[in-house]
Design a protein that fits this description.
- By secondary structure, the protein is of the alpha+beta class.
- It is 27% helix and 23% strand.
- The relative contact order is 0.08.
- Residues 78-92, 143-147, 410-414, 460-465 and 540-556 have low confidence and may be disordered.
Length: 598
């Protein structure tokens, strides 16, 4: 019979005999986990109440202890003597790492890898993933054991309610349960390689296939306004927009073993090409204070109504696929079962388009791991002559490239499959859909966002609106008369703007208190309110002058203010002095003046 044992390392199924003793089962668990299971009690989880009962009697047979096929046992660490002093930590797993050395030789090195997987992956490793047919029919998603009337996690598409969802791709964790060891090999090889036998590791023929799984099963914008602010900036200006998505990865409740990317905020850098790494790194630090990381990127099409030139099923351009590959490579998915310690990426790509009715909407995608590797290893490249075409690389004096094949389906109901070799210079358009992995992008019916205010202007382009000191004062005035001061200031862009400003005038402690207050420390309200008022209220200027000619008073601008503007913007002393003069001495307005002038 089969019993499951849940430990800190996850849940594992054991095939045992009814006459085996409880001690023999504990010995098996100890071998697998390196946990001192022999000296720890076991609890059985009872269904449907989900209560537990102790299972005692190490020398007794499992059958005599009332254990049946499919029983779930939990190793009770809380009632043990913690971890035994003799408990050993599992050594890092030995993997075969593939690399290409300077002489062009492919080498396999046995290395010990210590891979720190994402917290969502660690949590899902502990989930059994098998679904009761009965619970599935009732619309529930209850993790159970492997019995005849249970659904395997990699077969959910064949059963309701997931069959009606037309998923297209199963969750990566479901797929990986059938594919324990994931082995990466390079697709190209330096032509000067000397060790001919090493070419066995080279992928000589790449057969393009659709990816059966996806790393992210859905993208949720926590509130309608998170995405709407980005969309409206695009619609209003007609200028293409770009942004970084900040959020976190959580379990997808509707799909067993699924993961969703929850987006809390969008940040648009001052420019996109070249990408301002240092600027975004500071935003990363700020976002981390709220437990947020980069989960993807978002962009809009050129102009406000050009979707008619895009295919409905595959709306992505070749240059967009190229950028998707680069971003996914820069944000790899840590994975212990891979020989490289990583596999694929959770980084998502969202595009703003207009639909057939001309209404803007969002669509989410990822690039298949195979497609990303083809691009990142330059096996296919964006053509300069035909920007919406990929060029297939051919072997030359520097590199040996693989040939590319793909299947073409023809005949009735597309049942006839023909393997075709890519012989032309350009990759056929029919191949591109194989690279696309869809990730539905939506907003919740009942939002519960991390940031509850969306009134502060966000910077989207150099010519579009951006926050100023007057905007800060306006929001502070509204918050002061609000019943909940901190909730009124709980705006990602407001907090980011104010935090940067306060840190530049050596008021970082006030910035930290503001963030702590927004996160729930209401006792700080009066202190923060008075501190912000003292800094911003006296500096509000009513000047309407837009002259760019320095006035006589520019020479008397305080040197400290000039230095602050220079530090914040990287401009010259002359530019900082001029900006302060034009803006009536307001440091914040001077900073914005300089940034908008660049």
């Amino acid at each position: 019979m089969i019993v499951r044992v849940q430990t800190a390392s996850g849940t594992k199924r054991y095939t045992v005999k009814a006459t085996d003793t409880l001690k023999s089962l504990k010995v098996q668990v100890q071998k697998d986990t390196a946990i001192d299971a022999e000296n720890m009690p076991l609890l059985e989880q009872l269904l449907p109440s989900m209560n537990t009962r102790p299972v005692t009697g190490d020398e007794a047979a499992l059958e005599s202890l009332g254990l049946k096929h499919g029983a779930l046992l939990i190793l009770d660490v809380s009632n043990s003597a913690q971890m035994s002093a003799t408990t050993t930590t599992k050594e890092p797993e030995t993997k075969k790492a593939v690399s290409i050395n300077e002489r062009g030789e492919i080498k396999e090195d046995k290395v010990k890898t210590v891979v720190e997987e994402d917290s969502i992956d660690v949590a899902l490793h502990k989930v059994d993933g098998w679904i009761s047919l009965k619970d599935a029919q009732e619309g529930l998603c209850v993790r159970e054991t492997k019995l005849d009337d249970f659904i395997a996690p990699w077969n959910i598409e064949k059963h309701e309610p997931w069959k009606s969802m037309n998923l297209g791709h199963i969750p990566f964790h479901s797929w990986s349960r059938q594919n324990k060891e994931l082995y990466w090999t390079p697709m190209r090889l330096p032509a000067n390689q000397k060790n001919k036998s090493s070419t066995k590791d080279l992928t000589r023929v790449v057969q393009i296939k659709s990816q059966p799984y996806r790393h992210i099963d859905s993208i949720i914008f926590e509130h309608f306004e998170v995405a709407n602010n980005f969309i409206q900036a695009w619609v209003r200006t007609g200028v293409q927009q770009y942004g970084v998505l900040y959020g976190k990865y959580v379990e997808e409740e509707k799909i067993p073993l699924g993961i969703k990317a929850v987006v809390s905020a969008i940040y648009t850098p001052s420019n996109w090409n070249p990408f301002p790494t240092e600027e975004v790194a500071k935003v990363d630090e700020f976002a981390a204070k709220f437990g947020l990381v980069q989960v993807g990127w978002i962009w809009s099409q050129l102009g406000a109504s050009h979707s008619k030139n895009r295919d409905k099923d595959q709306p992505l351009r070749v240059n967009e696929l190229y950028h998707m590959a680069r971003y996914q490579e820069n944000h790899p998915n840590p994975w212990k079962a891979s020989n490289t310690g990583k596999w694929g990426s959770k980084f998502v790509s969202v595009i703003a388009l207009d639909n057939e009715e001309g209404q803007p909407h969002l669509r989410g995608f990822q690039l298949s791991n195979q497609g990303a590797q083809l691009i990142n290893e330059n096996v296919i490249k964006v053509s300069q002559k035909k920007p919406n075409k990929f060029i297939v690389a051919r072997s030359n004096e520097r590199w040996i490239y693989p040939s590319i094949e793909y299947f073409q389906t023809t005949g009735e109901e597309s049942q006839r499959r023909t393997s075709l070799k890519v012989a032309e210079r350009y990759l056929e358009d029919d191949v591109l859909p194989y690279f696309i992995v869809t990730c539905p992008a939506t907003t919740p019916v009942t939002p519960d966002p991390l940031f509850t205010s969306f009134s502060f202007p966000a910077t989207y382009t150099k010519s579009a609106e951006h926050g100023t000191e007057a905007d800060v004062v306006s929001q502070l005035k509204a918050a002061s008369s609000s019943a909940d001061f901190f909730a009124s200031l709980n705006d990602f862009h407001f907090l980011l703007w104010v935090s940067k400003f306060l840190e530049n005038i050596d008021q970082g402690s006030l910035a930290e208190k503001l963030i702590r207050g927004v996160k729930g420390e209401t006792a700080l309200e009066e202190e923060v309110k008075e501190g912000l008022k003292a800094i911003f209220a006296p500096k509000v200027t009513t000047t309407t002058s837009t002259s760019t000619t320095p006035s006589a008073s520019s020479a008397s601008a305080p040197s400290g203010d000039v230095q602050t503007v220079m530090d914040f913007t990287g401009c010259t002393h002359h530019m900082a002095t001029e900006a302060l003069s034009v803006c009536g001495g307001s440091v914040a307005d001077a900073v914005n003046y300089v940034l908008s002038a660049y």
